[in-house]
Amino acid sequence: MNTTPLTATAVPTPAGPLAFVVSPEDAVVRGAGFESVDRTVDRLPAELRARGVRTLSLAQATADPAMADVVEAVQRYVAGDVHALDTIAAEQPGGPFFQAVWTAMRAIPAGQTASYAELAASAGRPAAVRAAGSACARNRLAPFVPCHRVLRTGGGLGGYLYGLGTKRALLAHEGAVVGHESPAAAPAPTPAPVVSATPAAVTTPAVSTPVLSAAPVASGSR
Description:
Elements: E1 6-11, E2 18-23, E3 28-33, H1 37-42, H2 46-49, E4 53-55, H3 58-63, H4 68-79, H5 96-106, E5 114-115, H6 116-122, H7 129-138, E6 150-151, H8 164-174
Parallel strand pairs: 1-4, 5-6
Antiparallel strand pairs: 1-2, 2-3
Helix pairs in contact: 5-7, 6-7
């Protein structure tokens, strides 16, 4: 078992500080999120927490061989290079299907989104929509594994561990167009039939009654 302490830092972003933890022997991101470093460390698996964590200032992390590339990628992402995180190595424990879902998430390009159903299909199990949603909820590598790009069918935001405001901000930063479920259209009013009066059968000259057109039926508000 590797006992070398992990390294951690946080980079300021418009969505809040992005904390991440890296294993120094391979420069792989092991945990990340829009929260404090301490909270990100708390979410790590027990075997990783047991190694201990060195928290670096941003200046120290920029000069650290294992952290420098990750810091630079995050800063480029914040500056507008929305594909900068694509090549950063990031790993977290999980079963085969969760791993397939997380891999499928990383294949969603910045600026695009996928539904939970589409994500399940991309991971090889189209019927496992709930399980795909659980993989999103269990993701501890945001935004390197971009669960913010997964929406409900119909365009609803769904959930996000770090808040829907953060999810909206990330999608807007990447240029994604987020749809909204449209309410069902109200049925068109059915015109009432034209009513014609029948002349009265009397000995006096018949008086024609004007044709009446029924007023259109107002549609109810929704």
